[in-house]
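Entry type: protein chain
Record version: 2
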Amino acid sequence: MSDGHDHLSRGEIAKDALQAGAQATAHTVGEVTSIVTRAVGEVAAAVGGLATELFAIRDDVRRAAADQDGGTGGVQDGGGQGGDQGAV
């Protein structure tokens, strides 16, 4: 008769330990993948925002230069440095 305890063979114990380790590893890899995916998306958004700002600045500079060359008076300070680029 049985004494109420399950008796597992060494092979079953090793299999269970290996299975638990594999599951823990898979879970951790999934978490890290999710973190990296989110981070890559945030970096891409930040770089995209920077590119948008740089294009806007370039366009403002071109408009200011055109205003100055055309005599429309769009640029108050003739230095071309600093100043309020939003006044174009």
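Comment: Helices lie at 10-70.
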